[in-house]
UniProtKB/TrEMBL annotation:
Lineage: Bacteria, Pseudomonadati, Pseudomonadota, Gammaproteobacteria, Candidatus Competibacteraceae
Coiled coil: none
Gene3D superfamilies: P-loop containing nucleotide triphosphate hydrolases
Protein name: ABC transporter ATP-binding protein
Function: Part of the ABC transporter complex HmuTUV involved in hemin import. Responsible for energy coupling to the transport system.
C-alpha cells in the first residue's frame, strides 16, 4: 500500500528554487533515505512533504491530497521529526513524549490506557525510560534527540518523516535508532529519513534518494546510488566500500579537487 505519493515537488526560498521537480513514493514496509551534500534540499523537501513549506506539485497521503486533510487527521497519519530538538516549555521527558498522543485525543479527553501504553513503549524503545521525570532542558543533545524521536513514535502514525534522526547520537544509539526505524517500517509503516551517514543508509534503508542542488539525481538500492560516479559528482569524494557480515559499508575517504571530480 502506497502511503506517500509526491509528484514534481518544487520549493522556492529567497527567490531561488531549492527543490526542483522531485517525485517520490513510499509504501508500507519501506524505509527510504534522502541523502546528498549540505544544501541539496533534503530538509526543505521533507518539510514540504509534511505540509510545512509552500510547494508546487502534489502530495498525497493514503491517496488523498495533503491539503484535504484536517490538522488532526494529518497528525494521526503523518509524524514529523525536525532537526533541532527544541522544546519551548520546561516539560519533563514524559510530558513531552505524551504530546505525541494529542492527535488521538478529542477536546478535553484525558489519556486512556492505550495512550499511556504507547508513551511507555516509545520511551522503552528509545532507551529513555530512566529519564522520564527529568526536565527536558537538563538533558544532553543525544538524550534530547531520543526524547523527540520517542514523541514521534508515540503517535503510532503509519508515515514518519525524520530529519537527521541520528545526528548528535553516539555510535551505540545511532545503531539503536536505525534498528528502531527499520523495525517500525517492517511493522507496516513507511518512513522517509534524511541521513548523512552513508553506511547507515546502505545498511538499513530499502532505497536511497540522492539529491544535488535541489534535484533528484539517483534513486534505487545502495549499490546503484552510492556508485563511484555519484559520490564524485554529488559529494566530491572517493570512498572505501565493502561488505561485513553480509551488510554493506561505504566510508568516504578522500576529497576530490575540481579537476578530478569533473567540475569546471
Amino acid at each position: 500500500m502506497t502511503l506517500l505519493e509526491a509528484e514534481r515537488i518544487s520549493v522556492d526560498l529567497g527567490g531561488r528554487t531549492v527543490v526542483n521537480q522531485v517525485s517520490l513514493r513510499a509504501a508500507a514496509g519501506q524505509l527510504l533515505a534522502l541523502i546528498g551534500p549540505n544544501g541539496a534540499g533534503k530538509t526543505t523537501l521533507l518539510a514540504a512533504l509534511a505540509g510545512l513549506r509552500r510547494f508546487r506539485g502534489s502530495v498525497r497521503l493514503r491517496g488523498r491530497p495533503l491539503a484535504t486533510l484536517g490538522r488532526r487527521e494529518r497528525a494521526r497519519v503523518l509524524a514529523y521529526l525536525p532537526q533541532g530538538h527544541i522544546a519551548h516549555w520546561p516539560l519533563t521527558v514524559r510530558r513531552l513524549v505524551e504530546l505525541g498522543r494529542l492527535p488521538h485525543l478529542a477536546p478535553w479527553r484525558t489519556p486512556v490506557a492505550a495512550d499511556r501504553l504507547a508513551v511507555e513503549e516509545a520511551m522503552q524503545r528509545t532507551d529513555i525510560a530512566e529519564l522520564a521525570e527529568r526536565p527536558f532542558d537538563t538533558l544532553s543533545g543525544g538524550e534530547r534527540a531520543r526524547v523527540m524521536l520517542a514523541r514521534v513514535l508515540a503517535v503510532e502514525a503509519p508515515l514518519v518523516l525524520a530529519d537527521e534522526p541520528v545526528a548528535a547520537l553516539d555510535p551505540y544509539h545511532q545503531l539503536r535508532v536505525m534498528e528502531l526505524l527499520r523495525d517500525y517500517a517492517d511493522s507496516g509503516a513507511a518512513l522517509v529519513v534524511v541521513l548523512h551517514d552513508l553506511t547507515l543508509a546502505a545498511r538499513f534503508c530499502d532505497e536511497l534518494l540522492l539529491l544535488r542542488e535541489g534535484a533528484l539525481v539517483a534513486r534505487g538500492p545502495a549499490d546503484e546510488v552510492l556508485s563511484a560516479v555519484h559520490l564524485a559528482e554529488a559529494y566530491r569524494v572517493t570512498a572505501l566500500r565493502g561488505e561485513h557480515e553480509d551488510q554493506r559499508y561505504v566510508l568516504p575517504w578522500r576529497r576530490l579537487v575540481a579537476e578530478e571530480s569533473g567540475d569546471a
